Amino acid sequence: MKKTRTLLCLLLAAVLLVGLCAPSARAEEARGGTLPMCPFDEMEYKRPSVTLLRFHVMGVDLAIKCEQGYKVVEGALDKCYEDYYRFSTQSSIAYIRSCQDTRDSFYAAENAWCDEQSATMSQLMEDMYYICGMSPMAEELEKRYFWEGFAEEYADDSNSIYDDDTVALLEQEAALVAEYRELVASPTIVWQGEEVDYYSFLEEASSYADYWNALMLYYQTYAPKVADVFIRMVKVRQAQAEKMGYDSYEQMQFEYNYERDYTPEQAAQYLADIKTYIVPLFKQLFESGELYAYEDGPLDTGRLEGVLEAGVRSIGGEAEETFDFMKKYSMYDIAYSINKSNMSFQTYLDDYESPFLFMDAGGTLSDVTTFSHEFGHSLDAYVNYNANETIDLAEVYSQALELLILDRLDGELSEAEIETLRQIKLADVLSMYVQQASFAEFERQVYAADPEQLSAGWLNDLSLRLAKQYGYYDGYSEQYYAMSWIDIVHFFEVPFYVITYPVSNDLAMQLYAMERAQDGAGLDKYLEILPHETAGVVDTALAGGLQSPFAPGRLRDVAAMLEEEMLASAQSNAA
Fold first, then answer.
1. Cβ atoms 47, 110 nearer than 8 A
2. Is the per-residue pLDDT at 510 higher than 80?
3. Residues ≥6 apart with Cβ < 8 Å to 20
C-alpha cells in the first residue's frame, strides 16, 4: 500500500508540472480572463484539448488520495476549470467564425468537432465533482471552493448520468446537429434546368414570382431531408431522457438542461392562456391589416451602429461601459453578408471574460430591435461575468432592452422613425407570443408522439395545423406554412428553448409598463435587477418586486396593454 501511494504521488507531481508548463498571460485591459484581451479577428483559434482535462482530473484524484492538502487540491481544480473554459472559448470562436462565413469548411469542421467532444468534457467535469464529493475533503471543498449543497449533491456516484452510454447518445446528437448544419449551410435549387446557389438566387431575384417559386423549390427539395435528420434527432433525444431517468425529453430539458423554475405543466397552461387572450387580438389585427400597417424603411449598418450607441449612451453607466468595451475590441459583427448564418446571437468567450454579439443584418429599421436584443444579452453577460442563470432570465434582459431603448433614440432617428420602430416592436411582440407559442406546442406534440409515427408528412401537417390554430396562417400559402418549420433553428440546436421567449417577455412588458407610466421607472428597475443573485425568471421577478409570469391574469393584462400601445403608436405615427 505504501509503495502504491508513493507511485501515485510521483505521478501527481508529473501532472501538476505539466499544468505549470502552460502560462496564463494576463493583460491590463483584461477583465480577469486568462488570455490578454485583443480584437476578435486577432484571437487565435487552436483546437482545444480533451486529453489535458482528463489528465488534470486525474491530478485532482491523486492530490486527494495523496493527502496533499487543500492548496494542492485547489491548484489541481483550477487547472481543470482552465481546461474547461479554454475548450468553451475555442468552441465559441469556431462557432462564431463558422457563422460569419457558412462556406468556410475549416471552421464548420472544427465547430462540429467541438460539439462532438462537449459531452466528453461534461463527463470529465462530472467525474471531477464526484471525486471531490466522495472524498474526505468534501465538506471543506464545499465551504472553500464549490457551492452550498455540493457535498450532498456529489456524495454518491451511482447518481451520475454521464456514463459511456449517455455520452454516446450525446455524441450521436452532436453528429446529427452537424449533419443538419451542413445540409442547410449552402443549399442549391434547380432553376430552369440549372443548379444554382439558393441564397444568391433569392438575393438577385428579378421578381416576387421568381422569389416565391425559388422558395417553394427550396422547401420541396430540403424539407424531406431536414425532416429525416430531425426525426433521428428526436429518437436519440428520447433515448437520452430514458437513459437519464426522466419521464420525457421535455421534462429533461426543463429540469436538467435549462434548470427552469417552472414546470412543463405550467408552460402548457401558459400556452392555453396565450390562445385565450393573445391569439384573438393577433387575429383581429392580422386579418384587418392593422398589424403590419407600417413601412420598415432602410437603415445601413453604419447608421445602425450609431443608433444603438446613442441609445446606450443615453442609458449610461454599465450599459455604456459594455458598449465601449465591445466596440474597442470589435466584439460584435453586425455587417451584412449573404454568406453569414441567418441568425443573431450573443455568446461568451470565457478566457477573455468578454461577450460577443453576432447579427445577420437585414438593412432595415427593424435591425435596431435585433441589435438591442443581442446587446441586452451582452450587457447581462458583461455585468454578471456570464454568471449561471436560466435562459428565461437571460431573455428578460434582451427583450426588455428592445422596449426600454425606444425612448432614448432622439437625435439619431426622427420622431416618425421612432414611432415606426415602436410599431415594429409592438407588432413583433404580439407576433412573438403566437408564433413562439405555436413552436413550443409543435415541440410538445412531436416529442409526445410515438417516434415510429413521425414522418415528413406528419410534421408538415402539424406545422400547418398549428399555424391555423394560432392565427398566423395567411389563408393561401399552405406549402409555406406546412414546411417552413425547417427554418426554426431552435428545433435542431436548442430544443424546448422557444417557450422562453413569451415567458420572459412578460417581465419585459412589466418593465415597459412602468416606463410608460413614469419616464425612467422601467429602466431603473431593469438596472436594479440586472446584477442578480437568483437564477430563475420567477424568483428574479418576485425578488425584484415584479409579478410572476404565471400569476393569474398576466396574459390578459399583456393583451390589453399591447392593444392600447399599438393603437396609440399607430395614431401618433399617422399624425
1. yes
2. yes
3. none
Comparing C-alpha atoms, which of 229, 265, 261 is closest to residue 250? 265
> What sign results for the dihedral spanned by CA atoms 474, 479, 480, 486?
positive
How would residue 160 be classed by pLDDT, with cut points 50, 70 and 90? confident
Question: For residues 436 and 91, what is the distance between their CA atoms, to the nearest angstrom?
Answer: 28
Backbone angles phi, psi at 410, to 5 degrees: -60, 140
As a whole number, the mean pLDDT across the chain is 91
Mean pLDDT of 237-266: 94
Where b means 16+ CB within 10 Å and e means fewer, 125-159 reads: bbbbbbbbbebebbeebbeeebeeebbeebeeeee
Write down the pLDDT at residue 35.
93
Query: Strand ranges (DSSP E) for 287-394?
Result: 332-333, 344-349, 354-359
pLDDT at 159 over 90: no
Closest alpha carbon to 565 in 521, 498, 509: 509
Q: Is 344:369 a contact under the CB 8 Å cutoff?
A: no
Strand 332-333, strand 354-359: pairing: parallel
Q: How far is CA 404 from the centre of its chain?
A: 21
**pTM of the predicted model as reported, rounded to 2 decimal places:** 0.87
CA distance 145 to 498: 35
pLDDT, residue 465, reads: 97
- Other C-beta atoms within 10 Å of 384: how many? 16
Cα–Cα distance for residue pair 107/97, rounded to 1 Å = 6
